[in-house]
Amino acid sequence: MDRFEDMRNFVRVVERKSFTKAAGDLLIPRATMSNSIQRLEDRLGTRLLERTTRTVKPTRDGEAYYHRCVRILADLEDADTSFTNPDPKGLLRVNLQGTLARTFVIPAISGFRERYRGIDLVIADGDRYVDLIHEGYDCVLRSGDLASSSMIARRLALLHEVTIASPDYLARFGTPRTIDDLQSQGHEMVSFLSGADDKPIPLDFVVDGKVREITLPASISVTGADSYAACASAGLGLIQVPRYRVADDLRAGRLVEVLPDFPPDPMPVSVLYPQNRQLSTRVRVFVDWLADLFAKTDL
Asked: Which residues pair with 49 in a beta bridge?
């Protein structure tokens, strides 16, 4: 094993805060990982990691060495690609927003696999906040406005949204014709709690080119996209979702669009990756593939 592999192992241990998780990511035995780090520390003559029973973190020397390793390994991979132009190889760990994964990415992923056979994909899906570095993901795909972070965000698409309710709900509360009807008719909403700060997200409507936010009473709050849509179907209140998610229900009359003249602001779709390193070839081709996929998709 050469020193570049020792550096790669060290970087993964720092990011995963665990010898076991890092070894699992790189598909090597834990003992091999431990020996690699020990060899690196012996060669450098300094302690790089502080080990406890619960976690692993870099020392001050380890922190400085980590940032140098990240740059060196990225430059090495970029140099190899520039001169030999091999097909990208290795493990790529991505985290995808659940409904985007099931509706758009997974149905098309065989095309990516056919094109890049040397890449082994690990796909996780969910809506929660993800710490890319410490959880070992190379990039994440998310919808909605993004909180400020140290990640680089590349916008891929805008999702057209609709305000909807069930026929049963509208029979009880009435169908609003104007924004003011929402309050005068006593309408309610299903509250969607933001994963970042657990605050309810207000309904928003574009009126005369400006976004108007309205928060209605809510007797139920959810944190998941599937539960959010299910609550609307159950007649529990108004919700706002991307049109693609409820297109079949709208056509079948199971759900009804309201206030179509005042649509919600479109929802952005973005892919995020760390800014403190050069993109590996594996990540670059996956991000470019996602961008091409959403550019060709009717949203």
From this structure: 58
